[in-house]
Amino acid sequence: MHPNFFKQLLLISQFELKRGFATRKGLLSLVTFVVVWYFILLYPLRFAADLLAQEKGFKQNSSLLDFIGFGSLQLWPIPEFGVFWQFALLIFPMLSITVAADQTCSDRERGTLRFIVMRSSRNGLFFGRFVGVMAIQALLIFATAFSTLALVLYRDASLFSSVLPSLFVITFNVILAVLPFTAMMAALSARVKSARQATLWAILIWTFLAGIISGFAYYLPALDFFKCLIPGYQLSELAQLSEWRTLQLAYIPLLQSLVLLALGRWIMARQAL
């Protein structure tokens, strides 16, 4: 490992944060995300708060929630967190595919990657960009989680101390959920020439890999284990859990991320600049 690896990691991740929040493209993406999240917060999450205020109505609608596949909302003592959990598991992994698509590919296309590597090791660049992109997504996740907390406290400020553990668990789990997607995009970005190609390849690989493995596992149940190779395959099961029980699947995204990062590092070490 390069002796200045951690220094390079910090500098490159800081640059990635600036690129994500201090450039015109980054600010435009941020404003778009804020507007979309505002409407999600205003309607579904606020609607959950109204259901809590009308406890009788919430019980009457429980069968409807089961019918549409959101019966797990009843497992959350704070309905706003239950709705946030469902939306976060859907939005952030998909958002990660676009946010994390351009880690090293655009520099390769412009010819600046060789210039950067002259002043940094390939490992420092690869992992620095990955850490920077994860930091951007973690900040977005924290922002949405605390906006949901604000909605809860607006309804009942006395819940502050009791909701913090649930807020921590949700935030930690959503960050874990986006880890393998970001690692997959890091590996693809190290191989292709543009963010668009990385996004398209990610969708194709993810779709076909899921279809092929599921098809083989249907006829050979022993191959069901290989579903662990599909980033996010545990999300549907994770959505049915609540609070601390969600941590029982934390090992899956961690193992997927390690495998994908190892693959991406191997590609980066052998890819022409």
Q: What secondary-structure arrangement, pairings included, does this model have?
A:
Layout: H1 5-21, H2 24-53, H3 55-60, H4 62-67, H5 79-99, H6 105-110, H7 113-117, H8 122-155, H9 160-189, H10 195-219, H11 235-238, H12 251-270
Shape: globular
Whole-number average pLDDT?
Answer: 82
Classify the helix fraction into a percent range: over 70%
Largest sheet: none
The low-confidence runs, each spanning 5 or more residues with pLDDT under 50, are 60-64
Order of helices and strands: HHHHHHHHHHHH
Q: Can you tell me about this structure?
A:
- This protein has one domain (5-270).
- Helix content is 75%, strand content 0%.
- The chain is built from twelve helices and no strands.
- Helix 9 (160-189) packs across helix 10.
- The protein is globular.
Quickly list its features:
single chain, 273 residues, mainly alpha, 0% strand, globular
In short:
The protein is mainly alpha-helical.
